[in-house]
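note to self — DONT lose this again. spent like an hour looking for the file last time. sequence + predicted structure for the chain T wanted, 553 res
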Amino acid sequence: MGHGVGILPDRHLGENVPGTSLLDDLYNHGTGSVDAPAAELKRGKGGIILIPQPSDSPNDPLNWPVWRKMMLMLTLTFGAGVVGAFGPIIGAGLVEVAENLDTNVGILSMMTGDLILASGLILLLSAPASVIWGRRPVFLLGNVFLLVSSIMSAVAKDVGSLTAGRIIGGIGMAPIESLVSATIADIFFVHERGTWIAVWSFAMLGGVCGVSIVNGYLIENASWRVCFAIEAVLCGVLLIMTILFVPETAYVRQNVHTISDLGAKSGFGSASKNSSRSTFSSDEDVSVEGKTLDVESSRKEVANSFFHLMRPWAGHRFSDQSFLKLGSRVLSLAASPVIAWAIIVFGTSSTWLVALSVSVSLLFSDPQFGYDFKPGPVGLISGIGPFIAAFLGNLMAGPLSDWTVRYMSRRNGGVYEPEFRLLMVIPLVISTTIGYFGWAISASLEELWIAPAIFYSLINFGQAVGAIAVVTYIVDSHSRFAPEAFASMGIFRSFFTFGITYVITDWIASQGVLRTFCTIGGINIGVCLMTIPMYIYGKRARSWVYRSSWMPS
């Protein structure tokens, strides 16, 4: 299936390609490709087939009560806001902070690059750790690092000590930035994930934008150190909430019936077993490997108590594979076309956004660029519009992504393909193209501040929508390896961002705002257009990855 909606079929695995799943058999009449026994499938509201199929255990995160899932997401959403604010925490007042520390804006921009590089490189350790020992201990350690970093930064005496504090903070940021998507895949079904990823993404972007609104005036009227002191309090609250409301979500799921298993009994696809592997379970064992449980024993399980869930570590391994092997998987997954596409699209778009945030402070605070605003107004310009844009983008993108999945699956005979998520790149390329070229022209003309502010907001709208497309596509294509996949993307994205923070101020100074951001806008268009072949050939790419000898089993 898939060729009827522009996705080329796979000649090797048929419909048993990882990620391809039967979502709604009510629309499968007459296709002849999917005929799973309906009685054996668990369903949600409206008859939607649940992917992955949950076990019968009350301790399976997919079966958790709604209140537990909501409290977990509330905590991680709050954490996303805290982490989002941590990066640009002094962005609205870079000129003033540079004067206070007897340095320059370029050095502070490089400090941001150091922070982001640290948050990327630590993923080589945190991703394998989350697979072996679970998500909870990694979240807890990350929160501790954030708290220590905020305190160190608040009392920093010079650029060196501030840089050290920020690097420690980068290490603490990594779990919230990379593991939340995997956690969402642990506790929600495919047709629910888009909405929750949008909530997390909005909190992250909301923190990035919202911190500028407040901290601009704090830097102007109090001190930049107060910003870090407030952040330390928020990190303390986050640590307490994580202890209470974020239990372990990694789970060794029993051998329940899966979409592929049922399909194999009745002709779901025609997988050629060129590979020695058994029939692929499209979303079984979302993020854990190597262990299975007896079906009857899980049915007799008693739900774990609250105090049992509060343990910092589950007390057992979730994977028998070595730490080194899992760490190497983080790098090898970059060879997957899905991950490579995500690295290029999301990595570059995030990098340009960092470059833009640095240029906002420079442009509106430095008289040589035609403006001479204090940190307060700069914070409002870089905060209010983008915050509203991020809110609208995520409000639209999450539900629209899940609706698109259901609509396209029904057009495709009830069969879901992860490439349906890529349709959300369309609003990304439209809004960011208008945004970058509009920003370049309006800012270079040194006209009223409102025009650059509007275009800056459009870019943030596109980034919010694009993040949903990238994250959901990775989760649905490589769900079994979600922590490693996001770590791979995060590492290479950090390299991009680290590089741009070292050149952006000199680039703007030598080329000017117009030429710099017109160049960025052109690159952005070219990168986004790579989504077209990814959509068409994505199913074959997923099949190739699964059949490749380097793909981890």
